[in-house]
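Suppose a classmate hands you a notebook page containing two proteins, each written out with its sequence and a corresponding row of structure tokens. How would you begin to make sense of it? This section walks through that situation. The first entry is reproduced here exactly as it would appear on such a page.
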Amino acid sequence: VGGAAEDLLEAIGIDPGAIETLVSVTAQLSEFSVVAGPHEPAGGLVEVGGGVLTLGEGDDNEIAPDRSDDLRLLGRPWRVGAGDGSLAVSLSTPAIEAWLAGGETARDDDDLVDVARALDDRDVLSAFIVDGRFLESAALLAPDPFDDDGGPNPFDEPRIDESFDLVGMGPALVDGDVRYVVAYLFDDAGEADDAVASVEAVWAGATSVVERTPISDIATVDSIEVDDRVVPLVVRDARGVGIAALLAGVTSGEAPFVYR
């Protein structure tokens, strides 16, 4: 951490060297993060009520270019809550209020816990868990009328044939080399077991819908397992571009991250 990011953390009260865990949830334009460790709110924060502190003035998500700086993108204020050495940070006051009030957390979500446990059991260094619509879009399946290069027919391409609800991924060291663990969450152990063959087929034989090259030229699978209703894979990055390419594949509907 350095530069503006480190300045923001310190302005909130987070010591980058003392971060024990960091969990963030992003949905559309909103983000909510909890940073655990021996952290205390910075003295410059102002209470807006109910224990909620703020870095900057204005209503939630209020855009004020005249107040924009390295700490507040577009001038929007950050809301902060504190408890037991942890700090919660968000652009949303209700989100901080709910966190301060207690109640259910991500630990109470069985789906998230199952994926997180599978990733943790494989010693990932950090993790992303994506909850989205993974059903392949009919628009993506339609042949391109302007494509005359003899590319593959999307309907003939392998796809995962069981529906899944979450995808988790994170980097790990395997025998000193960087690998990536990708974990799919299915409805139950039976569906997970049934999905293995099609998961393998997609990674081995599908074509990238974005790059029009084989997925195996981008990443290859070292191993695949069934862990109850989770199917974790250890993936080798064939081009050295890192986890960003995998995350981009989720958001763009790449073959390994959709089912049909």
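The notebook's second entry, a different protein, reads as follows.
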Amino acid sequence: LFRSGDMTLKDIKINEMKLNTNDVFITPHFGFINLTAKNFSLSVSMVATKKVLLLNFEADLLATAANSSFNFLMTTYFNGKQLELDVSNVTVDLVDTNLTTNSSLAKEEVLSMSLSGEFKKFFTEAIEKTLETNVERTFKIVRGEMPNQIENPGTPLSVDYSETQSLVITPTHITAFLNGTYFLTAKGYEVPPGIFSGPLPDYDSSASTAAVQLYFNNYSFNTALYQLWNASYLQFKISHTDIKIVEETPFGLHPKV
């Protein structure tokens, strides 16, 4: 809430934010990503309440800003199931701000409020908090809608590619670690016994033209082979009726029937 004299602002909501992708700059550092946006504009609605005599009076306000900028840092963490985003150090520089209302009773107070440095500080802090909350929530919603598993067409297998740890962020590259376990679709996810993952190579800086580098661990192939065997796709029986072994064989095998 923001109070100016006997007027209080509440129900603050961003209605619209206009931002050109060419004005967004993403810079990875060690452990975090810095995001800067310039020349954005926005409109924010809010409700002003004021007590007039014995009545509580409310008026709809619209705050706008143009030619503004913001900056924040992003890090990821692994919650045990999937990645989550943490937004911090949000700073907003609002320029060309304006506050209007369609209420004739509140116009004088609104004009006085819009000219105060206290209101601009409140407006800025409200946008900073809203940005932090909305970016984190949007990432969580989008990540939650992404499947962790996918079926392999034409096979009885599916693969789990959920994250296993937080992103490793450096100035030159970002590394994501995915599960890679194959399992029988009909039985559901399970980790085969006795199969372990080994180390993966690091980012290859010599492959400068490669925008994405993808490495597969032997673990993924081994789990796929195990599950195919488990489903009897790699099992077969050989009897004396299936093969003929002659005496001339170099192994000297002479089956007895």
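A careful reader of the second entry would note: The mean pLDDT is 84.
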